[in-house]
Design brief:
There is one protein chain. Helices cover 79% and strands 0% of the residues. By secondary structure, the chain is mainly alpha-helical. Helix 1 (2-19) packs antiparallel against helix 3 (42-60) and helix 3 (42-60) packs antiparallel against helix 4 (66-88). The longest helix is centred in the last third of the chain and has 23 residues, at 66-88. The protein is globular and about 40 Å long.
Amino acid sequence: DLFYEEVMKAIWSYLSDKLMIPVAVINKEKITSVLEEKGVEKALIDQLINILNTCEFARFAPGSGQQEMGNLYEETIRVISEIEGIIKK
């Protein structure tokens, strides 16, 4: 589904830019490591990784509902906002 692909691209681009990790080498392990170094709590990192996993799965799953898309979008905004607040400190 295009929605999930776009959300995933946006998250990867944001993290690549924010954490200064080239897109060519960014992966979940590197993101986890860098966010931990910056003091982001594990539960929040896990939520971010879960969003990425959901997007990866949904790209190949038949039609997800609008409700699920809305929930994922809201959760993505919340998680990124929380991470942003921690990294800026």
